[in-house]
Design brief:
single chain; alpha/beta; Rossmann fold; 2 domains; 8-stranded mixed sheet; 6-stranded mixed sheet; 14 helices; 16 strands; about 40% helix; about 20% strand
Length: about 425
Amino acid sequence: MKSVHWNRSVGRRNILKAGAAIGALQVASPFIIQARGEATVKIGMVDPLTGILSALAQSEVEGAKYAVAEVNGKGGILGRQVELLVEDSANDVGTGVQKTRKLIDRDQVDVIFGDVNSGIAYAMSQVTNEKKVFHIVPGGHTDPITGTDCKWNVFRICNTTSMDAAAITPELVKKFGKKWFFITPDYAYGHTLQDAFIKNLKKAGGTYEGDMLPINTSDFSATLIKAKAYQPNVLLNNMGGLAQIDCMKQFTQFGMGKAMGLGGALYELESIKSVPADAQAGWWVMEWWWNQPNVPHVADFVAGMRKATGKTPSARHWFGYVAVHSVRLGADKAKSLAGPKLSVAMEGLELPPDVALQPGKVFYRAGDHELMPNLFVGEVHPPQGNPDNVFTASTLVPGEQAAGTVEETGCKMTHPAA
C-alpha cells in the first residue's frame, strides 16, 4: 500500500481542448455520429437507464458518449467514426439479454458494453460469448465474471467484489472493530460481496450478523432495528443505487450513527450527493476519484466532463470513458474488431496516463481480463469547499494486491481455436 494525502481541490483549470464539439449529452437515446461514405464502428451499450440503478447507468453512458466524441474528433477507431447505440435493460435480466441479441443480430454492433447489474452482465456474457463478440463489463462487480465463469471475450473495468472487500476490510477493522452487521442485496453482486467480506473478517477474528434483502428494497426499518439490537461496531451498507440511498437516510433518521460506525465497499458519488449531510459518512472504496492534485491529465478530464455534462465525473463516468478508449487501443493493436483478435490484443494492455487518470500502471491482466487499477480507500464526509468534494482518499491500494492471484479467482481462460 502507499498512502496519499490530497488536500488541494482540482479547480477549473486546463479546460479540455476537444477536437470536436461535444455539446449537451443526451442520456436516454442512442448517441450516433454518422460517418460519411464508410461503415461506422458500432458499439452497443446495455445499461439500466430506468430503475433503482439508473443514476449509475446514466453516468456510465455519459462517460462513454464523451469518449466517443473525443475519439471521433481524433479520427475514430481504425480510421472509422464510432456510433454508440444505447439500450435500456430496465434492471431486468430477460430484457438485458433481449437487448443484447438485438444489438448483435439486428444492429450488427462490433462490440458490447454492459451491464451495471452484475446478474444482467453475466447473462449478457453468455450471449456475447456464443456470438464471439468482444464484451466489456464497465461496472458489474460480481466475481465470477472474471473468475470461475470467465470468458475469452469478456473484459471488466470495475473491481471485483473481492478486490473491494480486501481493500476496505483492514480500515474498517482498524477504525471501528470486528463485530459487523451486513445489509446486503439478494442478487449476484451482494452474494459475492458479502462472501468476500466474511472471508476477510474471519481472518481478522471477527463476528457478524446481517440481512439479505431484495435489490429494490425501500423500507429498511425492520433490518435497522435488528442491527441496533445486535450492537455491532460497524454497519456495512452493501445496497446500491436508490436502495442504498434509502437505507442511508433511514440509518441517520434512526440516530444510529451515534451507536456504530458506517462503511462498506462502495458509496458512489451519485449516491452521496443524494443524501443529507449527516448521511455523508463512513469509510469506503472509490474505484476512481476526481480530486487527484498533480496527477497528469486528471484536471483536464474533470474540466472537460464538467463542460460537456455540467457534472463532476464519478467512477461510473470513468468506467464508460475507459471502455470506449479500451476498444480504440485494442483495435489499434489488433488492427481488427473481430472478437478473438481484439481479445488477444487486449490481454496485458496498459492504459496510457490520459485514459488511466491515476498514478501507476493500470492494465488488463492477461489471466482473467480484470483491469488492475488503484482502489481509493478513504472517508466520506459532507462537502468541503467544492460541493463535490465529499470524499478524502487516505490510501491507494494497488489492484493486484487487492485481487490476489489469477489462480485464486478460479478463472481458467480458454480461447477459441484459431
